[in-house]
Amino acid sequence: NGFTVWRSWDEPGGIRDELVAVANANRNLVKLVTLGRTHQGRDIIALKVTQGARGVPDGSRPAVLYSSLQHAREWISVEVNRRTLHHVINRWKADDAEIKSVLRNTELWFVVVANPDGYQYSFDHERLWRKNARDNNNDGQITIGDGVDPNRNFDEHWGYDNEGSSPNPADETYRGPNAASEPETIAMQGLIDKVKPRFQSNLHSFGEWLLYPQGWQVGTADADNPLYVALGGTDANPAIAGFNPGQSADTLYVTNGETTDYADTNGGTVAFTPELGEGVPGAGFVFPDDEALVQAEFVKTLPFHLGLAKSARNPADPVSP
Ligand code: 0X9
Ligand code: ZN
């Protein structure tokens, strides 16, 4: 496809094929669950990683949810998440005692591409696409002005106060015609409702923040949940080097209908939104197609992500990186 690192969803050997292959190659450890189907007919795929994955009911062990690519253009989130998935599987195969213990007791859920239509569109048509592929004006094609923002459509303070999302379909933060109107939202909400993750890392880019609920209102109480600081760290000592932890509405801006607010409130989930870096200053959403920079971004986030996995069993005793 002309890239060194980036692979689309649809292309042969692309991310969809990879997720299927990972599940097929690791039958005792990985179970593929199809959470739903997008407007354009793509599967929304989750991988559950736990010992004996296919023999134990989903949600029967403490769960951690690693999600990425809600926003089509944030390609770095896919690479960080899929590398985390491979890391866990590879450590298991290498007989790493710590990972084996985690995976006997905990289920790790990976939704590597939460918005496959938008992701594919960003390869085929518009690199800076953000939203999904809802055909807002029903003209049979996806063009500028179409799409719903997947991180404004959740059934949690959806559209609250009309601040932090837009009712206008043409806008980049269009929240959709109603709460949970989108297949991508229904898929993620359904997973959260089913497995009630102890923790979530909902990967976005960019800005090097480590955000947590609530997003819909400044100064909300969840910032006081000690687990957000225990696992996310502080400005002086952040869980991801160089990232600033903070309550999302205070630190960045107000949103509503947001994923981690939904998980926090409805799943009892300690849910973070890491905003990954740019790779090089000024790159913005267009993280460089550079293996060393991509790998570095993954390595930087790994201790935080492993901390979530190790802590899920006993959140009262969090393992910070
Ligand atoms: O706006 C978003 O959905 C996220 N930022 S992005 O640039 N990746 O689009 C941030 C969501 C975090 N929540 C709040 N800031 N309330
Ligand atoms: Zn984003």
In short:
The protein is of the alpha/beta class and 321 residues long.
Essential attributes:
8 strands; 321 residues; globular; binds N~2~-sulfamoyl-L-arginine; alpha/beta
Describe this structure in words.
It is a single chain. This protein has 321 residues and is an alpha/beta fold. It has nine helices and eight strands. It has an eight-stranded mixed sheet with strand order 1-2-4-3-5-8-6-7, sandwiched between helices. Strand 1 and strand 2 form a beta hairpin. Helix 2 packs across helix 9. It starts with 14 loop residues before the first helix and ends in a 10-residue tail after the last helix. The structure holds N~2~-sulfamoyl-L-arginine (0X9) and zinc ion. The site of N~2~-sulfamoyl-L-arginine (0X9) has 15 residues, from helix 7 and strand 8. Belongs to the peptidase M14 family. Carboxypeptidase that possesses the specificities of both mammalian Cpase A and B. Thus shows broad substrate specificity, being able to cleave Cbz-Gly-Leu, Cbz-Gly-Val, Cbz-Gly-Phe, Cbz-Gly-Lys and Bz-Gly-Arg in vitro. This is Zinc carboxypeptidase.
**Overall 3D form:** globular
Give the averaged pLDDT, no decimals. 96
CA-based gyration radius: 18 Å
Give the topology string: H per helix, E per strand: HEEEHHEHHEEHEHHEH
Bound molecule kinds, no repeats: N~2~-sulfamoyl-L-arginine, zinc ion
Beta-strand percent range: 5-15%
* Alpha-beta content class: alpha/beta
Function: Carboxypeptidase that possesses the specificities of both mammalian Cpase A and B. Thus shows broad substrate specificity, being able to cleave Cbz-Gly-Leu, Cbz-Gly-Val, Cbz-Gly-Phe, Cbz-Gly-Lys and Bz-Gly-Arg in vitro.
Active site: 275 (proton donor/acceptor)
Family: Belongs to the peptidase M14 family.
Protein name: Zinc carboxypeptidase
